[in-house]
Amino acid sequence: MNVWPLKFRPTHDGAILFADDAGGFFRSDGAFLDRYALGALTGSDREFLSANGHAFETEGDLDHTGFAYRWASRQAAAGDLAYVILVPTLRCNLACSYCQVSRADERARGHDWTEETLKAVIAFLDGLKTESIKVEFQGGEPLLRVDLLERVRAFCRRRFKSAEFVVCTNLQRLGAAEWAFIDAPDTFVSTSIDGNVATHRAQRTITDDKTEEFFSNLDLALERLGPGRISALPTIDVEAPPPAASVLDTYARYGIRSIYLRPINYQGFARKRHAALNVMDRWNAIYREFVDLMIERNAEGGETFEEYYLVHCLRRVLRTGQDGHVDLRNPNFLGRDYLVLDHDGRFYPTDEARMMTRIGQIDLSVGDIFSGLDTSKLDALNAHATNLFDPDCLHCPYQAFCGVDLVDDIAREGRIDGPKIHTDFCRRHTFMFDLVFELLYSRDPKVRRSLAIWAGVPDLPYSIAPEHA
Amino acid sequence: MADRKADLDAENSAAMEVEIEPALSDFAGAAVTRLGYLHPRATFNVRDHVIVVEGAIGDAPTMRRDVLHALYRERISDRGEDLRTRLIEGLLSR
């Protein structure tokens, strides 16, 4: 019998988690690890490994083929470019404390697409192979140039068989034209609610008038669009987080039950200063508090909560093909199926790459709308876009569920060839998958109820998390 | 280098030895290389049939476990390399 290589990691409660390259996993103990690593498996061990898809007899048999299929299904296949993030203006009518690098003053000149740029954008979209497009308008505040958004949307509706639009807006100053734009059924709104009213005012709107304006517009948007077309996320200040209960209450009031918790994404010197304050550990503690509270609330019945990214990680463990989130997939080729186009016509592989270029850390632009994509730069990055052969990831049981974020590595570590295990990306995702597996192996009925809801099944059987004695 | 030595002296000057099972002896070199960057405040050297750990050992049972696991991981990776290679080649050549 041949056993596929098993990666392992001690768990919080003294057991050991094992996983193979195709994402099959189980828990056992140190005695099994000794037997496996030293080539002394018992009959019972072999029976378990064979029954659970971790072994095969001969190459090409059903067990081998099944494993090959599962392994291949774990690899993200980038399709045609079908998701574009457009930044028609960098100007914004708010001045949030943590957003200085990605916005310009509302009255500033030279931060909007020119007529020439708009025409080039439309020509670029016209040249795409895809028949189905998703366009995300970011800024700045994109609704400051609703005229540009209208022209792009009108073109896409004509050109593609299906088109979906997302406006990332602060919902501050909406006139008739802006409301008409977001009223359309193919258009979705993504906004920020920074926890509760007090935190939102402190971090974003500053004055009572602007705070009132935002929450009134949010009420009106929910009334006109319904909660299904509005998503919101809080940006949490690790040094002054709002109480978890007040955040859940605020989101519940607006009928938003999926919350994507994110810490402030500091840039440049601010990032270095905050990195020294052990932000990661503090963030993880805050995050855990939110998840525990969601589990408690979900156990009470009624409407339920989910943390968007935890659910995504959970689903990546339980299923293949969960590659829709561009920050977590493997391989994660840049510049293939999604692209960012800035206010000055330059392309970026990700929004983080745009930020880094803007603060002068490194130029990660990959061409522009007039001369096309810089494929040589993309190829240089993409040579490292997989975790399959990384000397740390190779030993990690989370490898099959995890991914690669080269731009984040450059942003935080200044390079992409250092030990992955020391990167912010690795530490963050090790925490996430530790949490996923802790929950999967929990016997607490409250946890199991939340897991079933998050996994989208009526009940989560214990057999989904195998154990080998 | 001098700073690092001073750190080591200040933090923990203890030493410990972890015996290498014969089945793992071929993997000691790879294991100490990896342990060196996983535990940058400690040093790891292979002597005869032991790995000698010096410097900031921290919790001794945990360090002993980490050394053993590093050896295990290198052996598992080595033993699985052929299976992995044939799997990927098989899938990509179809």
From TrEMBL, chain A:
One of its GO terms (molecular function) is metal ion binding. Keywords: Iron, Iron-sulfur, Metal-binding, S-adenosyl-L-methionine. Its cofactor is [4Fe-4S] cluster. The keyword Cell membrane does not apply. It comes from the Bacteria. The keyword NAD does not apply. Residues 87-224 form the Radical SAM core domain. PANTHER family: ANAEROBIC SULFATASE-MATURATING ENZYME HOMOLOG ASLB-RELATED, RADICAL SAM DOMAIN PROTEIN. This is His-Xaa-Ser system radical SAM maturase HxsB. It comes from Jiella endophytica. The gene is hxsB.
TrEMBL record, chain B:
This is Uncharacterized protein.
